[in-house]
Design goal:
Number of helices: 13
Strand order of the largest sheet: 4-10-9-8-7-5-6
Shape: globular
Bound molecules: 4'-deoxy-4'-aminopyridoxal-5'-phosphate
Number of strands: 14
Strand content: 5-15%
Length: about 425
């Protein structure tokens, strides 16, 4: 409608790039969301979209789950913000320690970026070293300790994409970027640079790239051998793939783990969990030579904590993990079939409720394989899918327990239609 177009234009003017850099220069593709329910989003004109992006991943119960509405309404009655310990915060820490294999102690923050930032800061404080190893293409948040090596960048772009037009953050020389799924490169670097590296940070499943057998275990061994803190960034995989996240499924235990997104089903909550012998250095009464400063006005925010309890209750009681795993299998099989029928070469990857398609005939093991896949094609298809009522979930997405097979089938039909339109 004209009213919606006017709102989008106002946003273009007032909110450069939109809330999460989503405003594109392509006019006519944007809309303004008014509400969500179950697997759907509605725009201000009342048009309905199937949502496989679920708020960038957090909403594993879907939108406005009745149990979440009830819990948060009750939570608001108890007051909004205290900045103190509460019984519910302590109970949540207990639950995370119970579920996440490597968790002995917990610190809460509000966003995934804070969780990775403070995990890295703690590793530096404890080891007294400054360098960090990360993997090419991994995203650990929007702070300068984890600059993004942009996997969607052109092949000839500089590998360290700081996100700010050629300006490298001051710490960039301390960030070593190696290829995901290459444990030999890690061992070689650590062997050649003794005493230099504080931490190795890895997404156990880097987006939807999955580890080759033995990769994560080899990282664990290299870190032990060279005194490096192993950090799993489970902001995407934590709580979502299993109560204990990818470390439970893969059987490899990191020293520290960053959790975020799905742990609170849509409210801003994140956590750093890990071994007590490391985590104790967040305590400001600890040894000042190894102290890591961690703070945050909204840490352990009450509504977010309540939302986390509700998310865990519902997903466990309703056998959500089994459903998400089955629906994930179904979705990946459907996508592989749809692309094959359309004569499109694609690799469909992911685990559990994560799915991602890469348009290449080679196996996709690292960011260079991603860069070699056909991305231009993706964008056109993305726009067509929007026309078909699919919200931004191309070529990757997340499933929630609000989704069922009929929604996945509708997604497949929309892709077939969109491909037909492009041909
Ligand atoms: N780590 C990973 C693996 C992520 O995917 C993200 C967010 N996309 C972050 C960290 C940062 O989380 P946030 O956006 O909540 O700061």
């Amino acid at each position: 409608s004209a009213a919606q177009t006017a709102l989008v234009d106002k946003a273009r003017d007032l909110i450069p790039g939109g809330t999460v850099n989503a405003i594109t220069p392509v006019k006519g593709t944007e809309f303004v969301v008014s509400r969500g329910e179950g697997p759907y989003l509605y725009d201000v004109d009342g048009r309905r979209y199937l949502d496989f992006l679920i708020g960038g991943g957090p909403l594993i119960l879907g939108h406005a789950h009745p149990r979440m509405v009830e819990a948060l309404t009750e939570s608001v009655r108890k007051g909004t913000h205290h900045m103190e310990l509460t019984d519910r915060t302590i109970a949540l820490a207990e639950r995370l320690v119970k579920y996440v294999p490597s968790a002995e102690a917990v610190r809460f923050s509000s966003t995934g970026s804070e969780a990775t930032f403070h995990a890295l800061r703690l590793a530096r404080a404890v080891t007294g070293r400054s360098a960090i190893i990360k993997f090419d293409g991994a995203y650990h948040g929007h702070h300068d300790l984890a600059t993004w090596s942009y996997e969607d960048a052109p092949l000839d772009a500089p590998i360290q994409y700081a996100g700010s037009a050629g300006i490298q953050p001051g710490v960039a020389e301390d960030i070593i970027v190696l290829p995901y799924n290459d444990a030999t490169a890690v061992e070689e670097y650590l062997g050649a640079n003794p005493g230099k590296v504080a931490a190795l940070i890895v997404e156990p499943y880097q987006r939807a790239l999955t580890p080759v057998p033995g990769f994560l275990a080899a990282l664990r061994e290299s870190c032990d051998r060279h005194g490096v803190v192993l950090i799993f960034d489970e902001v995407v995989t934590g709580i979502r793939t299993a109560p204990g996240g990818a470390q439970e499924l893969e059987g490899v235990t990191p020293d520290l783990t960053a959790l975020g997104k799905a742990i609170s089903g849509g409210l801003p909550l994140s956590a750093i969990v890990g071994k007590k012998e490391l985590m104790k250095h967040f305590d400001h009464h600890s040894d000042p030579t190894q102290f890591a400063f961690h703070c945050g006005t909204f840490n352990g925010n009450l509504h977010a904590v309540e939302a986390a309890h509700t998310t865990l209750d519902v997903v466990i009681e309703e056998k959500g993990y089994q459903r998400l795993a089955e629906l994930g299998e179904y979705t990946r099989a459907m996508l592989a079939r749809v692309y094959a029928d359309a004569g499109i070469t694609a690799q469909v990857t992911g685990r559990g409720p994560l799915f991602h398609a890469y348009f290449t005939d080679k196996p996709v093991l690292n960011a260079n394989d991603v860069r070699s896949s056909n991305l231009v094609f993706n964008r056109d298809l993305h726009l067509k899918l929007r026309e078909a009522g699919i919200y931004k979930s191309f070529p990757k997405g997340y499933l929630s327990i609000a989704h069922d097979e009929s929604h996945v089938d509708a997604y497949g039909e929309a892709i077939s239609w969109a491909v037909g339109q492009l041909a």
